[in-house]
Amino acid sequence: MHDSGLEGVISSEGLARSSASVSELLTILPQQSHATSDGLLKLSFSHELECIPRPVSVSLFVDASPGCGGLAWPAGQILANYLVQKGPKYLENKNILELGSGTGLVGLAIGAFSGMKIWITDQAPLLSIMNCNIRLNRLESSVVAAELNWGSPIPANIPRPDIILAADCVYFEPAFPLLVQTLSDLSDSTTDILFCYKKRRKADKRFFAILKKKFEWKEVLDDPHRHIYNRESITMIRLLRRSNNL
Ligand SMILES: C[S@@+](CC[C@H](N)C(=O)[O-])C[C@H]1O[C@@H](n2cnc3c(N)ncnc32)[C@H](O)[C@@H]1O
Fold first, then answer.
1. Closest approach atom of ligand 1 to CA 102
2. Which pLDDT band, with edges at 50, 70 and 90, does 7 fall under?
3. Atom 1 in ligand 1: which residue has the minimum CA distance?
4. Where does this protein hold S-adenosyl-L-methionine (predicted)?
5. Which residues contact 71 (CB under 8 A, 6 or more apart)?
6. What's the 124 CA to ligand 1 centre distance in angstroms?
7. Residue 237: CA count within 13 A, CB half-sphere
């Protein structure tokens, strides 16, 4: 379980201290193994459900060259793990859109559940890694990669989502208002938005100050692992679009 690849991602987050909480965090992240030295990562999500393959496995090509999104970040692994544990019922017949998908990890982890279409989106340099990972997991029929730049108009080919997913998207201050704008453009009061983030610096507060104008939020409490990742400053929240903006 203490795989060097995972340690690598965690260490780039500044988490690789020899602390008890990091060891605990490693126990809840999906099992990982580097199949080869060429950047192919295998993630296995174990769960108790009868209706989906056990474990749910995702092959992930990771590559830091297109930017930070080319790696699998802990918040993405935590959100993917939460959705796998919840199982297909929550996602059935929903249009699902992930923002800042990077490698596509979260969308790919739920891509094999039936009855839904998932849009994994990011900036143009990440499109080839997302498409490569869709093909690698043979999910062409359920997962679509698309360019979606926060703050830009939503491309006409992207349908309005019922569920929006976002992991580790709060890290670059100039992008804060752009991300809030896109969340707002894509949602109404019925949209379910799951947002998993890591608090890194004081400036992150500014994101929540901007967010507050259009959204309320509450912590997701039904993840039994939350006490472990909370200790590493990772939190999962559900955003609710305000009907009357402040
Ligand atoms: C830290 S990575 C997280 C990637 C992935 N969600 C995960 O958890 O592994 C943040 C992602 O946000 C994307 N991103 C940053 N600014 C963006 C913008 N203005 N428009 C769209 N995506 C953006 C990056 O390209 C990157 O893939």
1. 27
2. very low
3. 168
4. 73, 100-102, 122, 150, 167
5. 9, 12, 62, 64, 102, 103
6. 11
7. 18
122 known ligand binder: yes
Is this structure's pTM higher than 0.70?
A: yes
Look up residue 83 and give its two tokens. Answer: 């959705």
100 annotated to a ligand binding site = yes
User: Is 3 assigned to a binding site?
Assistant: no
10 Å CB burial of residue 58 (0-12, 13-18, 19+) is: buried
Residues with CB under 6 A from ligand 1: 67-69, 72-73, 75-76, 100-102, 105, 122-123, 126, 149-150, 167-169, 171, 175, 178
CA-CA distances (angstroms) from residue 129 to 18, 69, 112, 179?
32, 10, 19, 22
Report CA(17)–ligand 1 centroid distance (Å).
25
Tens digit of each residue's pLDDT (9 = 90 or more) over 25-84:
777 666 666 545 568 999 999 899 988 889 999 999 999 898 889 999 999 999 999 999
Domains of the chain: 65-241 (3.40.50.150)
pLDDT digits (tens, 9 = 90+) for 168-214: 999 999 999 999 999 999 999 999 999 999 998 888 999 999 999 99
